[in-house]
Amino acid sequence: MQGRPALEVADIFRAHGPVWREAERGHLSLAQLKVMSAITQCRTAALGGHVLRCEDCGTEQVSYNSCRNRHCPKCQSSAAQRWLDARQADLLPVEYYHVVFTLPAPIADIAYQNKAALYGLLFDIAAETLLRIAADPKHLGANIGATLVLHTWGSALTHHPHVHGIVPGGGLASDGSRWVACRPGFFLSVRVLSRLFRRRFLEELQSLHDSGALSFFGELAALAERPAFRAWLAPLRKCEWVVYAKRPFAGPQAVLAYLARYTHRVAISNSRLLAMDERGVTFRWKDYRASKRGRGKTRHKAMTLSPQEFMRRFLLHVLPTGFHRIRHYGLLANSHRRDNLALARELLHATPTPPRESAADASAAPAPTFVCAHCGHAMVVVQIFLRGNSIRAPPTS
Fold it and tell me: Which terminus of the chain has a lower count of CB atoms within 10 Å, N or C?
């Protein structure tokens, strides 16, 4: 059984959250307050749980329930595994590519004040860019599919919204008669993707502003005026927008391994936390600006923040309620995914991915849900105790 990390995000919220929450009263959203409450109560008696007893050695163990909040570092591994099991059957026997679309820092600032609108726009324009360039006969000439995953953080917990795209290396011809594969090792021109992504995003961003769908606060309040906003946009039409394409994955299993790390990741995992002491909270981060080959430089560093700054940065990445951070487009869109994948396999002369369980496995006794850490035998639930109060934000005055 894997031991509890020496330090958890929940420990930081428990130790410093109450005082900081009171100091920030009126500045934290309801969603942020709910995340704080969920993480601090996760796997504690506050959420209830059950008593387990080993059927062999008689060892008893108390197991508390999880909060299942999507921002909780302790609750994502099981959710990721369920999602991956469903994606296993979607893989095709082709190269897969990893493409990243990143918003420039000035737009990231207004995205934080308009999360639902601009994160949604980031998804849609990134997908439109991929599908549109791929459909162009000058590039690929095929209808492709893509799975996009939103990340809003950099390694130092700063606000850095970007989407990771996992894309099969090819697609269906416009008439559906054949599979069109991209050149080995090359998917689409990132320069072409970047230009279209920049133009279309700025066009739609201007439309959102013209319709009054954006809000501006603090230092950005002046951008609510149309002339000021147009002047602010002008330099962004000329600067480079980062679209990055990595080399293809080494087979479908590498795609699954990547997805396991990225799809249900939160802003920081407990394993990256190093210490909480009088200096503050220290954690590992990766400095992407440091050269891999530079002498005396390393990409892996330690950063120390005050507990208040650490909590502020962590809560920057709380998503709007109901916002989907994993989305499928084109051939992989939920409405027609099954039919499109069946046609693609037929054209590729590929057999469907077999189910994870064979008939023999299905008839065998299921594996125990709980296993004794001492002797490895099954444990059974002998007592259930209910949670106390439901997870909610603290009442406001």
Answer: C
* Mean pLDDT within 189-216: 96
Side-chain-facing half-sphere of 390: CA atoms under 13 Å = 1
Direct distance between the N- and C-terminal alpha carbons of the chain, in angstroms, rounded to an integer? 44
Tell me the per-residue pLDDT of 275-296, one tens digit each, with 9 for 90 and over: 999 999 999 998 877 655 555 5
Residues 296-307 have pLDDT tens digits of 565 889 999 999
Is residue 41 within 8 Å of 397, Cβ to Cβ?
Answer: no
What is the pTM for the complete model shown?
0.85
271 SS3 class = helix
Q: Check if the beta carbon of residue 171 is closer than 8 Å to that of residue 145.
A: yes
- Residue 374's nearest CA partner among 121, 43, 53 is 53
Helix (H) or strand (E) holding 146: strand 145-153
The C-alpha atoms of residue 96 and residue 185 are separated, in whole angstroms, by 10
Give the residues across from 62 on adjacent strands.
51
Residue 239 lies in a domain: yes
Tokens at residue 306, please?
């005050």
Q: Does any domain span residue 374?
A: no
**What would you measure as the largest C-alpha separation in the chain, in angstroms?**
75
Tally of structural domains, the chain: 1
- Residue 91: which residues within 8 A CB-CB, separation 6 or more? 252, 255, 256, 353
CA 120/CA 115 separation, integer angstroms: 8
Of residues 158, 126, 117, 123, the one with CA closest to residue 242 = 126
Rounded to whole angstroms, the Cα distance separating 146 from 332 reads 6
The 3-state DSSP class for residue 166 equals strand
190 neighbors 244 (Cβ within 8 angstroms): yes
Does 71 map to a domain?
no
The helix or strand, by DSSP H or E, that contains position 210, with its residue range, turns out to be helix 190-210
How many CB atoms neighbour CB 207 within 10 A?
A: 11
Cβ distance 10 to 40 under 8 Å? Answer: yes
Angle, CA 370 vertex, CA 364 and CA 371 arms, to 5°: 85
Enclosing domain of residue 326: 76-267+316-348
Is 173 contained in some domain? yes
Do the beta carbons of residue 268 and residue 10 sit within 8 Å? no
Question: How many residues would you count in the chain?
Answer: 397
- In this structure, what are the phi and psi dihedrals at residue 148, rounded to the nearest 5 degrees? -115, 140
pLDDT above 50 for 395: no
In the chain, what are the helix, strand and coil shares in percent, each to the nearest 5?
Answer: 40, 20, 40
